[in-house]
């Protein structure tokens, strides 16, 4: 299996290099040269298998032999042993046609754990084999940061720097990051938005001298391995509901477009999916794109679903690559235009191709609160605000009743207790292992939104860590 960049100019890489590379050297994102294929019979044979076994089957073709099957099986089993539900990502039925896929049973209570628990172990395996050390730089609007820190804390060959937008995460999200006091963990509270954080991370990768000197790697969904691991739960959920012999659709609360792109990948691998419903909060650039064919940035507004307060959805570039006929030069031109003018558009035919698979919906703050309240009253089930955007989007999509619709529950409601309590009068509790979170010591550094300041900080801390090692 080989991986190519969406911008067409970076070297073609195998799995190990793609895992460590993060962003491609031409500024693009890596995608598989071709998608592994699963027949309907292959999918039927997944019925009744445990999560980790389906995970091995789905992901093995992406490794291209880079890790022996038995070693990979052991890594996968170990990664998901840390989840507090035997099914890893259980389904909960809301009504006749709608199910919630709970992706929040990992250590940090968000869907990011599903990929990052695996990634931390893959980094260890590959770095130990190569005798290398990396400096991870990541951007978070709240959840990737804590999941990545939890997965990488105290790992010998890794220093991890996470940029979060100061004051724009929930308190639980911030504390989950900043209360990890391990020497290899460095939290940066940036004076800016998530998009600023993500821009700085990409700028560090695009500074080739800095990238090579520091040995940069990524934990955001620019890293192909993140997408690969997220593809798995689309298979497990669809198969549990009767696929490929039953119609299934997914609704995905969306920000950076990584999770829903993983669903697109599952579909490209042969999993029959009727529709992919993209749910946006008031930061609705994607909903506007699917309505018009124009991607046009607007200022980010803070919402009740802060992890989706994003205007520049990084992974959309991977979809665009396919919509533009896998033409790296055309993707580069669109992305350059987006950077210069804040917008680009696709043709009517390209939009129609996208709409054959996706639909996009916007849910405002009142709609988010009303959905949390209605599902609590109607089903006695607590939604977090991100998942509520998903549930409301599923309703707006109006899929036929014979389609089993799976809404991705991307975070535990206890990560956003204020919004949930306001909507339902019920304050969700953190699990006992996190019950002292509010009194734990925190450590973080505040930095301005300036590339030089962030690079100097990363270089100085990484040098000190290397000398201490
Ligand atoms: C709770 C939650 N829901 C939804 C999203 C959006 O997912 P994606 O960025 O993959 O579109 C995020 C952040 O990524 C998140 O943390
Ligand atoms: N919502 C995310 C933003 C980063 O997304 P990623 O999937 O690219 O890591 C977060 O919670 O940090």
From TrEMBL:
Pathway: Amino-acid biosynthesis; L-threonine biosynthesis; L-threonine from L-aspartate: step 5/5. Residues 2-80 form the Threonine synthase N-terminal domain. CDD domains: Thr-synth_2. Its cofactor is pyridoxal 5'-phosphate. Keywords: Amino-acid biosynthesis, Lyase, Pyridoxal phosphate, Threonine biosynthesis. One of its GO terms (molecular function) is threonine synthase activity. InterPro entries: Ser/Thr_deHydtase_PyrdxlP-BS (IPR000634), Thr_synth_N (IPR029144), Thr_synth_N_sf (IPR037158), Thr_synthase-like (IPR004450), Threonine_Synthase (IPR051166), TrpB-like_PALP (IPR001926), TrpB-like_PALP_sf (IPR036052). It comes from the Bacteria. Belongs to the threonine synthase family. This is Threonine synthase. The lineage of its organism: Bacteria, Pseudomonadati, Pseudomonadota, Alphaproteobacteria, Rhodospirillales.
């Amino acid at each position: 299996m080989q991986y190519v960049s969406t911008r067409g100019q970076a070297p073609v890489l195998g799995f190990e290099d793609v895992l460590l590379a993060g962003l491609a050297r031409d500024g693009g994102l890596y995608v598989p040269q071709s998608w592994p294929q699963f027949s309907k019979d292959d999918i039927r044979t997944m019925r009744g298998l445990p999560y980790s076994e389906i995970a091995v089957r789905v992901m093995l073709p992406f490794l291209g032999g880079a890790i022996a099957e038995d070693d990979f099986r052991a890594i996968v089993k170990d990664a998901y042993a840390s989840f507090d539900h035997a099914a890893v990502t259980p389904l909960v039925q809301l009504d006749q046609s709608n199910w919630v896929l709970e992706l929040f049973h990992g250590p940090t209570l968000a869907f990011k754990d599903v990929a990052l628990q695996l990634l931390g172990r893959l980094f260890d395996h590959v770095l130990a084999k190569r005798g290398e050390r990396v400096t991870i730089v990541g951007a978070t609007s709240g959840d990737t940061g804590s999941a990545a820190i939890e997965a990488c804390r105290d790992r010998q060959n890794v220093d991890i720097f996470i940029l979060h937008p100061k004051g724009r995460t929930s308190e639980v999200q911030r504390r989950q990051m900043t209360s990890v006091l391990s020497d290899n963990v460095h939290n940066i509270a940036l004076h800016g938005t998530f998009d600023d954080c993500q821009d700085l991370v990409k700028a560090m990768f695009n500074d080739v001298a800095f990238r090579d000197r520091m040995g940069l790697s990524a934990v955001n969904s620019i890293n192909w391995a993140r997408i690969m691991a997220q593809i798995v739960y689309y298979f497990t959920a669809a198969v549990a509901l009767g696929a490929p012999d039953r119609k299934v659709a997914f609704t995905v609360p969306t920000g950076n477009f990584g999770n829903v792109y993983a669903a697109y990948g599952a579909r490209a691998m042969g999993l029959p999916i009727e529709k992919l419903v993209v749910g946006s909060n008031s930061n609705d650039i994607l909903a506007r794109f699917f309505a018009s064919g124009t991607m046009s940035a607007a200022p980010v507004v803070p919402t009740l679903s802060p992890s989706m307060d994003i205007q520049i959805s990084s992974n959309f570039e991977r979809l665009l690559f396919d919509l533009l006929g896998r033409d790296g030069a055309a993707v580069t031109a669109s992305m350059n235009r987006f950077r210069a003018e804040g917008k680009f558009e696709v043709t009517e035919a390209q939009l129609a191709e996208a709409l054959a698979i996706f639909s996009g919906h916007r849910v405002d703050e009142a709609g988010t609160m009303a959905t949390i309240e209605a599902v609590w009253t109607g089903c006695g089930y607590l939604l977090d605000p991100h998942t509520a955007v998903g549930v409301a989007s599923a309703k707006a999509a109006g899929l036929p009743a014979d389609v089993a619709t799976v809404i991705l529950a991307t975070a535990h409601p206890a990560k956003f207790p204020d919004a949930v309590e306001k909507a339902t009068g019920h304050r969700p509790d953190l699990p006992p292992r996190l019950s002292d979170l509010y009194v734990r010591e925190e450590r973080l550094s505040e930095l301005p939104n300036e590339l030089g300041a962030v690079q100097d900080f990363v270089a100085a801390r990484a040098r000190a860590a290397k000398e201490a090692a």
